[in-house]
What we know:
The complex is a heterodimer of chains A (379) and B (335).
Chain A: H1 7-22, H2 33-49, H3 68-80, H4 89-102, H5 105-117, E1 122-125, E2 141-145, E3 148-156, E4 166-172, E5 183-189, E6 195-200, E7 209-220, E8 224-225, H6 231-240, H7 246-267, H8 274-304, H9 311-333, H10 343-352, H11 361-372
Parallel strand pairs in A: 1-4
Antiparallel strand pairs in A: 2-3, 3-7, 4-5, 5-8, 6-7
Chain B: H1 7-23, H2 26-35, H3 40-48, H4 67-80, H5 86-99, H6 102-114, E1 119-125, E2 128-133, E3 140-145, E4 148-153, E5 158-162, E6 171-175, E7 182-184, H7 189-220, E8 222-223, E9 226-227, H8 232-261, H9 266-291, H10 303-313, H11 320-334
Parallel strand pairs in B: 1-3
Antiparallel strand pairs in B: 1-2, 2-6, 3-4, 4-7, 5-6, 8-9
Helix pairs in contact in B: 1-4, 4-7, 4-8, 5-6, 5-7, 7-8, 7-9, 7-10, 8-9, 9-10, 9-11
The structure holds flavin-adenine dinucleotide.
Amino acid sequence: MDLTFTPSETAFRDELRGWLADNDPGPEPHGDEHAHFAWRLDWQRRLAAAGWSGVHWPVEHGGRGATLTESAIFFEELANRRAPLPGNVLGLLLAGPTIMTWGDEAQRERHLGPILTGEEVWCQGFSEPDAGSDLAAVKTRAARDGDGWTITGQKVWTSYAHHARWCMLLARTDPASERHRGLTYFLLDMEQDGVEVVPLRQITGESHFNELFLDGARATDAQVLGGEGNGWRVAMTTLSNERSGLAFFHQVRMRQLVDALAAELAERGGLDDPRTADALADVAAQVEVLRLTAYRGLTRLERTGEPGPESALTKLMWSRANQALTQLAVDALGPDALTAGSRWSYELLRARGNTLEGGTTEILKNIAAQRVLGLPRAS
Amino acid sequence: MNFDLSEDQREIKRTARDLLADRCPPERVRAVAEGGGPDGALAAELAELGWPGIAIPAEHDGLGLGAVEAAALLEELGYALAGAPLLATAAAAFAIEGAGSDAQRAEWLPRLAAGSATATLGIAHGDVAALVADAEGADAIVLVQDGRARLLTAAEAEVSPLETIDPTRRYARVGAPPGAGEPLPGDPAAAVDRAAALAAAELVGVCQRALDDTVAYVGERRQFGRPIGSFQAVAHRCSDMLLAAESARSAAYFAAWSADADPDGLPFAAALAHSVAATSAREATASAIQAHGGVGFTWEADVHWLYKRAQVASRLFGSVGAARERIAGAVAARG
Ligand SMILES: Cc1cc2nc3c(=O)[nH]c(=O)nc-3n(C[C@H](O)[C@H](O)[C@H](O)COP(=O)(O)OP(=O)(O)OC[C@H]3O[C@@H](n4cnc5c(N)ncnc54)[C@H](O)[C@@H]3O)c2cc1C
């Protein structure tokens, strides 16, 4: 056990800090979602130009070949610098690694470069109106059509679809199939007739996710990833990458929120109230435990090489802690914090999504119970 | 960065788990609890193995290992609810080593390491420590009060046995007239933090035992024609217990590591470990009773010992509220 960083990890952090000190992401645009996304994409272009995009990707695919710990450091430092996540975060964390695992030479050649630079943004078309937690119930239909596929159906909650050039699409290719069988994973070109993106408004008022209507959209055989009928396994690769690294970004961001809250409370004398101080200690402890547990997970991952079901635990910790923290903030800071558009009211509302996105709390507890603890399934 | 036990540390843990499963099975815990006495035979055997001196420096005849090794061992002692006074002795040894004079170290540490003497540590207010583990029969008692420590021999301390709800270990109230005993010249604060880290590790073991026993039980017990563990409300309770156990483990190991490697970070880490382990252990052991149904509420089942240990041990080195106060203070100071 050694909770300090090795000289090479420290050198990595120092080099990154040096670069970040010279390269400011610039002021965060507020109130204009398109300007905000453009800001994040521009940030990714600059990261990529300096070789800081896809740090965890292997060098042969244009990445930096960084270790998992270095990748964690990368996300911590981005957050420390108050820099945003790169615009094409789903491409970097999900699509890219999935294509590296399952793609053929041509697919890797075609897609990995533009993912790194952010030139082509990706979205994830898994969830459907009738297939949310129960992803294997996907109904979107891809039918054989000459030397390609015609796709019809509906996806929902598709984050970034309105910016995306490509979509990781899970569709049913065998109409007689049920559940996990007969699904195929497509790299769907979003720029075509037959693909319609309709924004959905979130409880924060923003529109980050969308409905995605597919009506005769086309895909070629070359756009099938991992083979016909193998979609479930490919999708599992995507999902197992879903939480990688992000815990470290969130952990730092949450610590910043804890500190900001403590400072605001101190200014108003709020910490003199022992109930408030006690509640602050509780959320600060949760955030610290998240950090520590994420590092334990990283050590384990470095040893086993496989992201295990344990990653469900950090997601559970993160989402719970963020909801507790933001609730405490609006409780302790009073009505000011509940003003529409205020920072804390935004954080409070956004946090409600944390226990839904990337697997709901209930589903993650099922995973923990069955796959970590080995409890019997309901049959 | 490597946040896991080393192979050697895992080996200590495995050895302890196996040995205690054999020497300290539930029947033995029950015998200690119902017979009202500590497990002298077990204590003697553990002393043979050198366990009381695990973290005592080799120059004083201890094993000279670190707080992380001690934490791994304490976790297993907690898992077994062992009735041997290792936590108490380790806490006193931390104080004598960290705040004692050369003469005090030379007098006490070798005997504590050998198990030929036992000691304990209590936090006193107004010359009385309200809850001290294994004070009866201890050869030395360290009382920490207002940032200073003094060492009392058995004859100098007023030890009144306490009947707490946790009969798996003996507890007492310890008083000492002002001026009694000899002062330890140094600052005992770090020793108390190290003791808190080990107490937290012991509670990690309690959490893990509550979880393991519950998972086994709900996988076997059937109602409505199926194992109750297949009911989601029960399964989710188990997932929450897992979260509690892993949270406590992260915090306790962090504190143990800080005790060895990051003295500046230790006060925060110890407060974190105390607060998180206490909260987790109380929650996990309460859940264990609930998941066992009526059986869990009987004296005959063993889950209640875990609950009782969690309640009392959480208070050994101060209140959870005080630990939270320290965390809040640290957060306010860094902002
Ligand atoms: C901010 C945000 C961004 C998202 N981005 C994307 C995206 O980019 N791409 C994408 O594909 N999806 C995305 N999603 C969708 C997300 O993955 C789903 O919302 C989630 O999987 C839940 O599915 P659902 O909404 O259909 O809810 P449901 O599955 O209908 O769940 C409703 C409630 O029932 C509970 N429930 C369901 N099944 C069980 C069960 N077996 N046991 C216990 N409880 C159960 C759930 O936990 C939940 O509380 C996003 C969601 C959010 C909130």
